[in-house]
Specification:
Shape: globular
Distance between the termini: 23 Å
Helix content: 40-55%
Structural class: alpha+beta
Largest sheet: 5 strands, mixed
Strand content: 5-15%
């Protein structure tokens, strides 16, 4: 996907997140993040937006921790969230294509600008799902292309890091198959961080097949990773649910 496409998704998803959060009520529990209320969701995502924008805007090449969100409530918190989201969209739109700054995934795009546009588009989309879970509505759709991209970022980026807790005592293989886009990932599990490769790389102990949008939500643990879409050794799907949280 192009940087401009990621920014368009980010802009749309951030606006939808704020609208949904307001409709749900800021004191409502977020079922997909049970220790959070909608207030916490807005504070976290708003803080991440400002954190991400700072790297691009100031060409920061060293990591800095994500700041805490402010102790605002009600309309003031919503305004703060919207302001930070708009500033992030503006920063990514106006930044020079060759900006150099810190990134943090092992399979990050070569362009730091592409990395942050991609990462924040997915960050905001997943948390928009959290707001919809709080409201009790069906998740708004995402395009198959964008969902496939998000699954790839999760499998080959986040879970390639040493901090991934998805481990097995003996080598096992988990296959992820997007029925609508044709994308396939083979995830090799062991006592080391998961190693995901594209394609059907040999037999699998468990296979998860579904449309890319369902895989996107389920692998981010926003929908149950169960049902006829899961075949073979279902303990590997349960392992994912129990240990794959980011």
């Amino acid at each position: 996907m192009k940087i401009t496409e990621y920014v368009e998704v980010l802009e749309r998803e951030g606006e939808l997140l704020a609208e949904t959060a307001e409709r749900a009520g800021l004191d409502t529990i977020v079922p997909s993040c049970p220790t959070w209320r909608v207030t916490d969701l807005l504070r976290h995502t708003g803080a991440v937006h400002r954190w991400a924008a700072s790297f691009v805007q100031d060409a920061v090449v060293e990591p800095t921790p994500i700041p805490d969100g402010p102790e605002l409530v009600g309309a003031e918190l919503l305004a703060w969230f919207r302001e930070g989201h708009a500033a992030l969209v503006r920063t990514l739109t106006e930044a020079p294509a060759d900006v150099q700054c810190w990134t943090f995934l092992p399979t990050a795009p070569a362009s730091p600008l592409a990395f942050w546009a991609r990462r924040q588009a997915h960050e905001t989309t997943v948390h928009r799902m959290d707001a919809e879970a709080a409201l009790g509505t069906v998740f708004s759709p995402v395009s198959p292309e964008f969902a496939e991209d998000g699954v790839d970022e999760l499998l080959t980026g986040f879970h390639a890091r040493p901090r991934s807790r998805v481990r097995t005592q003996e080598p096992r293989v988990l296959r992820i198959r997007a029925a609508d886009t044709g994308a396939v990932w083979t995830v090799h599990l062991s006592q080391e961080p998961p190693r995901a490769v594209l394609g059907d790389a040999g037999p699998a102990d468990c296979e998860v097949t579904g449309e890319a949008a369902w895989l996107y939500a389920a692998l981010w643990n926003r929908l149950p990773l169960t049902g006829p879409e899961v075949t073979g050794d279902e303990t590997l799907a349960r392992l994912w649910v129990e240990t794959a949280g980011i």
